[in-house]
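Write out the 3D structure for:
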Amino acid sequence: MVAAAPVHADLLVGDFNNHKVLRFSDTGALIGTFGQAGDEVGLGIPGGITFDSAGRTYVKSMTSGDILRFTVTGTFLDVFGNARSGAQRGLAFDSNESLWLRRIQSAGTFGNEIVRIDTSGNIVQTFNSGLAGLGGAILDRNDVLYVPRAELTDDTGNLTDGIYRFTTDGTALGVFGQATGAISGCRLPGSVAFDSVGRLYVSSDGRILRYSTTGDYLGVFATGNIGGYIMLDPLDNVYIGHGSENGVMKYGPQGNFLGKIISAGLGGVPANFRNEAIAYIPPIPEPGCSLLLVTTTFTLLRRNRRIRSGAGDGNDTLVGRAGAAACLMLMRPFRGSINSCRSMCTCPVAPRGPRR
């Protein structure tokens, strides 16, 4: 069986105003709407995007709370589940393919409740985190939850803001190392992501802050008109929403600014575009690549993502290269080159120079 759509995409970006998910290359070139991901299937405002190991894409509606599921090319499959209130950002899978999010528990408890949805789309667990904020929770490879706390009205000067951790049974593990407003200036954190060696990146009050795998503060990674979602690709390039909510900016692995790669009104992007959710996905394959390759690529990326979210034990690069080798073996009958694997897969294909 052969994939039908001759398209490539590295970034999926939600459009708040136009109720769509748009596809872009990693340089910001608009490819088009992601299949049927729009109001025609009840999307509303896209407030979280992620994918499972089979390559299916999940989009959380901030309008209805529905979680919509799509194929790898954007064909609508079904409403996977409903999380009721939908104002918070983010969706994240754990190692058992359960889906996690946060939501408003009741009036005045902005984002306090953490929700787990099983593989059938049923809410099977909730717990009260006691943390205000809109930022989505993420999980590391040990299935520990990292949840941003952002007190919008705080008489302490947001000193208790920061990143807090929980086990999946709801046990509070406390703040993640030095990731607090008091210690490292982690105020009003809006989004979090891991890099390839497990360091944590936090969008915080117009800056991107970086922390070691144990929570030590590593300094300000980047500054600018920064806000909203943050996402890293497998080469540790950083994508983050523009603070004016009219585009997406890109930074290199060392924090070097690579430009505002997506802008409202430019390159075919709607003039009223307002960025919301951002996700990096394996490029959609060209004709001639089997669906087995598609599934294997997503599986390797999910495995790599689980590794990158861990303790950085020194084996990350070796495992990533093993994944790359497996991708190359699969690619030979179809494309036959390392460059093809780079364009199709999101594994760290050698040679790329030493990993940090």
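The helical segments are 181-184, 291-308, 316-331, 338-344.
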